[in-house]
Amino acid sequence: MTDIREFRIDIPDDDLTDLRARLSRTRWAPQLPGADWERGVPVAFVRELADHWATKYDWRAAEAELNSHPQFVTEIDGQRLHFLHVRSGRPGALPLVLLHGWPGSVVEFLDVIGPLTEGSEPFDLVIPSLPGFGFSGPPAGPGWDSRRMATAIAELMVRLGYDRYGAQGGDFGAFVAPDLGRVDPGHVVGVHVNAATVGFIPFGDVDPDGLTDAELTRVASIKQFTTEGNGYFQIQATRPQTLAHALTDSPAGQLAWIAEKFQEWSPGGFPDRDRVLTDVSIYWFTRTAGSSANMYYESMHGTNWPTPSRVPTGVANFAGDVAVRRFAEQSNTIVHWSEFDQGGHFAALEAPDLLVGDIRTFFRALR
């Protein structure tokens, strides 16, 4: 099946009623006296956020905003693939794939769609829900690692009639975007990443000699993450199905699991609350807590680790990002590197203007 079908989000009213009822019946965990974020999401924080989700947040408004952009589904390699396809309508538009990670979704990119499709350096945007995420639904089977996702997206670009295009991604999107350059180098003109890790950072012990103060800070951040910050990673990389039972049954649990990362990885403070709740709502309504976590399992149990790429690559390091150029250059052809003291892991949500500007700057010479 190679047809591309129009798609609109239309969550049944019964699902909205069920969500609110479940939130109203949440059995809240007791809070350890004196403990704060170092032990996980505080009860007061997630309880207030859950109350907003149940009583004030407007899913139908969010749904309408998403549906204001053309959406489609197709099947590739046996896998359903949902995507937004927003054409610029301006001459000289460069096709650009925007790739989210976890715990993100296509919602991350809503604030950059307008700016990227307009102006004198426009882009035609293709924004997929990665296999296992959102309206792409659960994976059709095991084996959907970054390389296989990239191969499917390369086929999608063929079906859309694009002969040359760019790729941009953050978090796990910064795995898939470089892999697009590896599997489709004849058509990918450039790769731009933010919140980049594998392939852009060192692993194991690092000799500090010769490293700058900024690089030493990032190496220390990586070490702190691997000792104190990657519990979620280890669970999702080893027992995603066990986790799925809890998160698919409890919206408060799903909310806490995702909200923790938006809080911890956003140096400027928790992003727009309703945007985050739209993101969480998609995980909830599509029951993809477990299937999205499978991405971590595939990454840790597969063999497709980064190989050298000759595709021009640009990196935007926002506040808290940990990519280090001298290590990134070992497997990527780095031609552009930016440092920002603002934004954070979710740059498209936290600093859309800075991200859009950096994407434009990087792709200017590649059009």
What do you see in this structure?
The protein has 367 residues and is an alpha/beta fold. The protein has a single domain, classed as 3-Layer(aba) Sandwich (Rossmann fold). The chain has 15 helices and 9 strands. It has helices at 13-24, 43-55, 59-67, 110-117, 146-159, 173-183, 213-229, 231-238, 240-249, 251-264, 273-286, 289-301, 325-328, 347-350, 352-363; strands spanning 5-6, 71-76, 79-86, 94-99, 123-129, 165-170, 188-194, 312-317, 333-339. It has a 9-stranded mixed sheet, with helices on both faces. It is globular. The protein starts with a strand and ends with a helix.
CATH architecture: 3-Layer(aba) Sandwich
Strand arrangement, largest sheet?
1-2-3-5-4-6-7-8-9
**Number of distinct beta strands:** 9
Mean pLDDT metric:
96
CATH topology-level fold name: Rossmann fold
Give the uncertain stretches in residue-range form: none
Question: Can you tag this structure with a few keywords?
Answer:
alpha/beta, 367 residues, 15 helices, globular, single chain, Rossmann fold, nine-stranded mixed beta sheet
Quick description:
This protein is α/β, with parallel strands linked by helices.
Sequence-ordered SSE layout with sheet pairings:
Blueprint: E1 5-6, H1 13-24, H2 43-55, H3 59-67, E2 71-76, E3 79-86, E4 94-99, H4 110-117, E5 123-129, H5 146-159, E6 165-170, H6 173-183, E7 188-194, H7 213-229, H8 231-238, H9 240-249, H10 251-264, H11 273-286, H12 289-301, E8 312-317, H13 325-328, E9 333-339, H14 347-350, H15 352-363
Helix pairs in contact: 1-2, 2-10, 4-15, 5-6, 8-12, 9-10, 9-12, 10-11
